[in-house]
Amino acid sequence: MTPIMNPATPAAFCLSLVILSLAGLALALMARRARLWCAGRPVPVEWARGLRALPKRYLVDVHHVVGRDPYAARMHALAAGGLLGGSGLALLALIPALGGARLYWALIALAFAGALAGGVMVGRRRYPARPARLSGGRFQILPLLLTFYAAGGFLVAFDAALGGALPALAWPALALAIAGGLGLVLQIDRGPMRHAFAGAAHLVVHPRPGRFEGERATALAPLDLDAPRLGVATPADFAFNRLVGFDACIQCGRCETACPAFAAGQPLNPKRLIQDLAAALQPNATNATYKGSPYPNARAVAGIGGPDLPLVGAGAMIHPDTLWSCTTCRACVEECPMMIEHVDAIIDLRRHQTLELGALPAKASPPLMELRYADEPGGRALAARTDFAAGLTLPLILATGRADVLLWLGEGAYELRYGRTLRALVTLLQMAGVDFAVLGPEERDCGDLARRLGDEATFQRLAAENIATLARYSFSRILTADPHALHALRNEYRAFGGAYEVIHHTAFLDGLLAGGRLTVGALHEARVTYHDPCYLGRYNGEIDAPRRLLDRLGLARLEMERAGKRSMCCGGGGGAPVSDIEGERRIPDIRMAQAAATGAGIVAVACPQCSAMLDGVTGERPEVHDIAELVLMAVEAGSAKAARKDAAGKDVAGKDAARKDAARPPEPVA
Amino acid sequence: MSRLRRDPRMERAAHRIAGTPRPRFDLAAASAATSAATSAAPGRLRRDPRGEERLALVPGTPRRRLDRTQRVALAPAGAVPAAAMAETAPRLVVIAEPAYLVAVVPDAPGGRLTPHDRQVIGAARLLADAGGGAVLALVEMPGEDLAAAGVDRVLGLPVAGYDPEAKAALLHAVLDGLDIRHALLPESADGADLARRLAALTGEALFAGAESLTAKAITRAAQGRRIEQRRAPPRLITLAADASAPHGGAPHEAIPVVFALPTLAPGAILSAEFVPADPASVGLDEADFVVSAGNGVHDFTAFRALVAALNATPGASRMVCDAGLMPRAAQVGASGTVLDARCYFALGIAGAPQHLQGVARCEHVVAVNTDLHAAMIERAGLAIVADAQKVMPALIDALTGAGAAEAQP
Amino acid sequence: MKIAILFSAGRHAASGRPAPVPVELQAIRLARELIGQAAGDAAGDAAGDLSGDAPGVITGFHAGPDAGPLKDALGHGLSRLVQLSIGAQDDPLPSLAAALGAERFDLVLAGRSGQGGEDAGLLPYALARALGLPIVADACALAAGPQPGTLSLEQALPRGARRRLILRLPALITVHPAAPAPLPFAFAAMRRGMLETREGVPAPRAAGEVEERAYRARPKLIAKSAAGASATERLKAATEAASSGGRLLVDPSPEDAAREILAHLRQIGVLRH
Ligand SMILES: Cc1cc2nc3c(=O)[nH]c(=O)nc-3n(C[C@H](O)[C@H](O)[C@H](O)COP(=O)(O)OP(=O)(O)OC[C@H]3O[C@@H](n4cnc5c(N)ncnc54)[C@H](O)[C@@H]3O)c2cc1C
Ligand code: SF4
Ligand code: SF4
């Protein structure tokens, strides 16, 4: 070794060379893995846009998620920053002008010191006891490799910075760095380090780029029903950028802790699911290397796969019960620092099960059949949808052809429980003099259930027919109390040519109160906690209006530990109630316990599913009320108070008359 | 019996409802008796030589053969036990020389009429009494309850085992050989099958599943219950359950008639074995009587004993199935089984909407619950606000006690 | 084994829209399981997988102007559907008799009664007669019989009773709703299935003497009265039915409660001792 370049120390020079060769090895391993991604279906990707946006996506969007766990954020910044910084700088030290500068090596030493601190933090998290959500196996030796490499690098650089004052230390340190570095690089192929490069690639080719641009971007992508094979059967059926996404998983287990199905002991663990999907991409794959928490009450599977082998089935990687346990709540997606789209993957797999194999859970099939022939999952007459309003006048849009607000009733209208909510809403609309109408017998199911159960054919038919119906009428906005319908109408019909302004009843009522069109009295001393519906909060980002509205009612509002966009599902979405996959607990019981823990006497809900699920919880518990019901109570309390004020000094009969007057809905404004 | 004298006092007495302190009269009985009387009133019944000849025709033979001995078909065959009957029954209605026959083919499993059979006979009475006809029952096993049900004549159909095709062929022969204006069958599993076989054999139209019947008009549902079809009663009719009242008047003679039936070659059914319904193991969707436990039941040994004692099918709410106290297959409700049972007996079940969906089609609901405001109590026809743990043993005691008491005499 | 299944032009009970009749879809499953069993597979396996073709020949027949949603039967496991094109008012019997007579089927399955048309359920019987086949009603399970050319079947009787029959084939069998639920619908299987249209036999139906009007539900006449009840009992039952507000007993003694319950159960006839 001729020191032609006059490096600080021979050991430091060797470190640079080692890093260079490790980088070469890393690139080769990455290329090998990336070749597997090519098995996936090609999809158009805006590479330039993705590459340009990568730094922002990483530094802002990813760290926004990572930052929810401050320890992890610091740990990751130190480990990743130190590792990349130290290694990169050490590589540049091959440039003689830099490699000869002791100050430069001091900088490198600093970077490695950071990496070392990060490595120690990684270790502190995993030793002595590893939290259940973190994986073991290769992941458990990660802190060792990190500290070895960082410590080795630090010592070599430190020695170089001191001008070779510690030669006895430098060479063993170099060996340590080599050992650690080689270990880390080998982890690129099938270990934790894969997340670094796959994660970066995923940020570039992300299937929902809108997520980084302030959109919620939660609508499912339409499926081409003329495609030769529908949905995803094998890893190769996934779009290639989905495969990149699976490889990006760092097994942090954040999705696992957020998953309601996991909490209920159903056989679903989103982390394990993503790992199974990633593992199956390897030819002759097995699921044996996974060392995280299993699927709860896992159903037996062979655990084998390959790029062109089926993913789902007892003889494959994933048991069907795993797929059908998902409520499509997107809590996993919301929590995932690697921006992985679990729900899309689950729906892709379900589409194949449903459309190609007809392999649905026994109880999920009849509602889809009813939807095919009656446009209603319960097989009930469409005209019966307005039965809840017996005694109220419910204007049909058919009569006039137009209305300012089209009230979309949704499936809840058939349920006795939710009928009360809709009655309250209709009463409030009439009180406020809103010009509204309903489709009545022309309203078909929005198709949410069909779509989540993978029956894209039925969804697309319903969407097309609803869009055709809506096209016949003139209205400025669609109002609905059902967040699932809201999501379908607002976000998913767009791909089929239906663009509407859709507003949820909480936002609408908030507007009516803000505009003074309804006046409320305070519902004193009631302690209330608000349960965010997934399809309103997480899917559509609407978490403020319902809270504002509750505050206007003069309620003492308490927050559950999981609220807003990070709220926990009630268990009612994604067709989970009809799939009814056996677990240990019921999701709504868990959620209700969280609500009860706030000390609230009322759980305010804003969705027919939440209402049904939470009301199904037995025993001592807070009451369940839709916000519309609470608003009506407050309006009635207000008018009663106004009546009392008016009637002060008058006789009792007058008081009664005043109350009646106040309760009568004003004439609708034309 | 050449002429029948009317005795208004006797007739009135025959219509009187027994057991009421004030004299009350039953119209159905009245119509039966008066029509019997009016049919006889014109005095002599005309002979119908062509009809008699038709009756004497021996079916199933290539050449036309008459068997004059069969003339007895319209008259009592052998000694009439009328005297003996008159002693026990209020009064026996006798239709000596009917103008025509209305045939009924009751299911009569094991020779006993079912409620549906009685309704069909009631309907047949209506058609017969409208014109002085007689009701002829065609049964595999003549039972004792035919007279009270309103049957005038009985003809046995010798069918070995389960062979509906043979039975249909015999019926076909009877329909061809006797003056049968209408043939009525229950629209039950076996009756409906038989009627359609008969319709296919005779090539006649079948008025299937009649839902209302008078002598002039008969109706049925078609096109998925969107359309009601209506016409004068044709010859072949099946009657839906609970569409007509059973005969409520005085008993008729139910005397056997003789008719030479053809012998038939064996059919395609090689063997048949009847497996009676076992309430303990029958699927919930087919069960007739379901006894169900909810969260308010703690003693499942008693519950199971009660279900067995009631000879019912066990069910449960989701809470109970979730807790593993009953198998998942026992779950009643929206995400369990939707029942078609006649009676649902709910012990300690609150009656959540999803649970009530499962019992929406049950005609009778009995509920025991400690909570007066439980939705199940509201839904029940008989609601008992009490502790299920106390009621269950009392029920078992009452049932076993009743069994023992019955066994003694 | 060659199996034919008859499909009638059904309508959905609530929507009134054209729809397959559920028991006819159940027939597909019975047929697939029977063939799967004959092929030596575990019955469920062969029947449940809609990804491939049925392990045997199952042909559906429909006589009518348009197959419409009946082609969905192809998504429930049927591999081939033949539509015999006739006018809406034509009698399907001659078309079906001709088509089924031309091919020799070991087994013909049909629904118990159509849905949406005459609903009399006469067609399978008339067809069996025309084809010279024996007919058995209300099968809820099929299996290969003890000897070749025989079939063992379970006939569903009311309230869960069964009759086990052994039958010589060929035969026509109608299916009962107690048979296993239809295989779930698979859109792609429907896409793959073969739909064939042939000319049927025009057979105008003779105008009947029936008068038709909108359906009107009638109250059940005597639902309450027990078997062989006397007029008095019927009267009592009728008056009680009219005043069926429901009886409520609050805190009776357990013995009173038991007595009351048993009396009630006996009265409605579910308890027979
Ligand atoms: C999507 C969904 C689907 C569902 N599907 C179903 C379903 O298919 N079937 C189903 O059953 N549930 C279903 N549920 C659950 C349902 O909402 C209720 O939670 C459940 O039915 C309650 O069961 P329960 O009445 O046994 O329990 P509880 O609600 O706990 O009621 C127990 C009752 O027993 C009474 N009781 C207590 N002690 C006694 C005593 N000593 N003697 C007598 N009475 C006593 C109490 O007053 C109470 O009324 C579903 C829920 C959801 C959300
Ligand atoms: S999928 Fe995302 S949240 Fe879940 S373990 Fe992997 S990286 Fe973490
Ligand atoms: S969407 Fe919800 S239920 Fe489904 S895997 Fe993610 S967290 Fe679990």
Automatic annotation (TrEMBL), chain A:
InterPro entries, per the entry: 4Fe4S_Fe-S-bd, 4Fe4S_Fe_S_CS, Csal_0991-like_N, Cys_rich_dom, HdrC_iron-sulfur_subunit, Helical_ferredxn
Domain of life, source organism: Bacteria
Record-annotated 4Fe-4S ferredoxin-type domain positions: 240-270, 314-345
Chain ranges passing through the membrane: 12-31, 77-97, 103-122, 142-162, 168-186
Region (Disordered): 641-670
Biased composition (Basic and acidic residues): 643-664
PROSITE patterns xref list: 4FE4S_FER_1 (PS00198), 4FE4S_FER_2 (PS51379)
Record keywords: 4Fe-4S, Iron, Iron-sulfur, Membrane, Metal-binding, Oxidoreductase, Transmembrane, Transmembrane helix
Zinc found in the keyword field: no
The name this protein goes by in its record: Fe-S oxidoreductase
Species the sequence originates in: Ancylobacter amanitiformis
TrEMBL record, chain B:
Matching Gene3D superfamilies: HUPs (3.40.50.620), TPP-binding domain (3.40.50.1220)
Chain positions covered by the region annotation Disordered: 1-46
The keyword Transport belongs to this UniProt entry's keyword annotation: yes
Chain ranges of the Electron transfer flavoprotein alpha/beta-subunit N-terminal domain: 102-279
Sequence similarity: Belongs to the ETF alpha-subunit/FixB family.
InterPro entries: DHS-like_NAD/FAD-binding_dom, ETF_a/b_N, ETF_a/FixB, ETF_asu_C, Rossmann-like_a/b/a_fold
Comp. bias (Low complexity): 28-41
Organism the protein comes from: Ancylobacter amanitiformis
Basic and acidic residues bias: start-end ranges: 1-14
Entry protein name: Electron transfer flavoprotein alpha subunit
Automatic annotation (TrEMBL), chain C:
Keyword set includes Transport: yes
Listed transmembrane segments: none
Alphabetized SUPFAM superfamilies for the sequence: Adenine nucleotide alpha hydrolases-like
Keywords: Electron transport, Transport
InterPro entries: ETF_a/b_N, Rossmann-like_a/b/a_fold
Residue ranges of every copy of the Electron transfer flavoprotein alpha/beta-subunit N-terminal domain listed in the record: 49-193
Protein name: Electron transfer flavoprotein beta subunit
Natural source organism: Ancylobacter amanitiformis
Lineage, highest ranks first: Bacteria, Pseudomonadati, Pseudomonadota, Alphaproteobacteria, Hyphomicrobiales
